[in-house]
User: Fold this.
Amino acid sequence: MTATGAPLRRRLPRIPDRFAALGAVIIVIVVLASLLAPWLAPYPDDPNPLESLQPPSAAHWLGTDKVGRDVLTQILYGGRTSLFIAAAVLAVSAVVGVTLGVVAGYAGGWIRDMIMRVTDVFLAFPALLLSLALAVVLQPGVNTVVLAIAVTWWPWYTRLAASVAASISTRSYVDAARCLGVPAPLIILRHVLPNSLTPVLVQISLDAGGVILTAAALSYLGLGAQEPTAEWGLMVQQGQTLFTTNWWVVTFPGLAILVTAFAFNVLGEGLRNALDPRRAVK
Amino acid sequence: MIEVRDLRVSYGGRVVADVPELDVREGECVAIVGESGSGKTTTLLSLLGLTTDAEISGQIRVCGVDVLTAPPRRLREIRGARAALVMQSPQAALSPATRLGVLMRRALRLHGRPATEPAMAEAMEAVLLDPALLRRYPHEISGGQAQRFAIALAIALGAEVILADEPTSALDVTVQAEVVGVLRRLRAERGLALLLVSHDLALVSTIADRVLVMKDGAVVESGPAPEVLAEPSHPYTRELLEALP
Amino acid sequence: MTMLRAERVTLGYGKRPVVHDVSLDVTEGGVGLIGESGSGKTTLARAFLGLLSPMSGTIWYGDQTLKSVDMRKFRKDVQPVFQAESLDPRMRIGSSIAEALPRAARSRVGELLEQVGLDPGLAARRPHQLSGGQRQRVVIARALAVGPRLLILDEPTSALDVTVQAKILDLLAGLDTERLLITHNLAVVERLCRTSHVLFAGRVVESGPTADLLAKPAHPYTKALRDAVPKLGGPPPEARGRTEAVPAATGCPYRLRCPLSVPECEQAPPLRALESRQVACHRAEEVLLT
Assistant:
């Protein structure tokens, strides 16, 4: 019964909390390293054919690639691209998705039905496929990647925000505002939106890793960032044929993707647990 | 059944409950009365060692087990079986995807008791519930039924004392009357001891033999219920009584 | 004088009605809507506030329907007082109250807080920094800000400690507004309402002067409610009939719970006049006598 269950549940969140803290630390390191790439990178971001395919050594900690670029330098610069893509995609998706979502959730009725039908249409396409199609039609490049992923990403935020906003809209403080004659747009802006944001923030953190992976996949397919832009997925794509002979060219950018995606995920999970009222400790 | 001496529960040096003496004998009903923040729930939880991160001093004996020094295995024996806890909203504590019958059977096995159909039906009937309800899921029963099921679970496990935290305050008055009726009957027929935590003095006056009035973590008054309620000696008890509508 | 009137109102969410064909007047001297969870009392309150349109029937405000009335004026006249939780958790107290005021009158926030017995300094706090009683006072202050004639109070004290409850009731009793009070607490109704209506399963089963209803209930449900309330030093509260029986879909909705149920109860009893009240029960005369 409750007698034995209660204390156990209260002790549990601590373990994931440590993971979340680890995730946050990794993210801070990755972001700082990327921002400070021009100062931290041991070599300039240029090809040097004389140094091509050097294994990891004291001079090149993570080795060099086919055209002789230092892999560590590339990862630092590539982080800027990957993080920019993640930030841009999530910003666009969240702004568009949440705006439509809170309107749908508050208004209900035919307005909600209409907005949700539109999101359903976008959700009906497999995300990667739609991104692929867009990337083919437009010029490949970082901006195309952002646009392509954002187009398939925002509907999730609409759904999330709509369901949260619908539940917030039934709260008595929203009814009280309606009874005071506050116009609907102001009620959404003042009451519904601010109180709906928490789960969205959690979702953004959970999604960041996914966006980086999707962007990497597009690059890997040759539809994302193009040479000479450094980007993790592009590095993996270029290094894959060399895996058996020069493993470092593909392994280290792959690890960078993995670790960053993982860090965002555990941070998101931690945030979700911390903010979930059912798991909150008094 | 319950014997408490010089109990002091504190969090980070701040005393939240200070109970010099609290005894509940077989077949007796003792009520702890107070408003939010009075420490009444903390006191109740500490009796089963369910307060986390709290510093507890004093002596607590529940069903003959010294709660503060007993090994975890001994504690599990009394928790949920010999001393059952009934909370304000039991539905939240019932796993939503499990039928009530399965829940009860598991609880019985966990405590090494025979989980036979007749035993389970008898426990249900003791709380005036139709044994057919055992086939339902928790969300398919009402709040009052869930509360009585929690009590039935305690009965099935052979509870000698029930510790109830505001067991009826989330219920409608007519349903509350029914749950209180069940508790009174079990007391009379089975000699069940009852420790009740409540904010409702009127309700307490109709069921409790003895009353402890708590305010800000301290017991301000205690004694036989009729005396305390008819001639309160502490101004706070008087204030509580006057506030009754 | 009647301020609000429900005329044969049926209310529901989606297609399922939860209030069936209810007619009642909100008159002076305080009106109580008594019922347990699921009785439809809060749904009815939402309809009176114009937050929910009736599936059928009409809500009248004076000689106009809620559909045709000037909502700006209606919102100034009729305000809700919900539970203390009806404050936006992220908003400062002052902003919550100021939301009710025109820009030029924002300075009145302090005055309003004083009117409900609070320190004007609390305006800078957020709801979680206040006690339950203080929050409930803020909710009242917000409703009073627009100068309403009628307050619709939905369980204004039921989440509060008893000593706090008593003080909030004092405050409410001292206000010079009319009130419609929605509650399950008979004692609160007794104090604040001259007239009461008892709801069961979305239907009015008994209406009349509050004092008469509580002294001599004519409906078995009113009687069950009254007898279930524990009284200080009184006998243990009594449960009459089976409380878990669901309301009957046909005939008298209370008949499956009712200890007096007879075959005749399969015919829905009409609401009829009996002494000072209206009651919907075939055996009301007998209930009155017991």
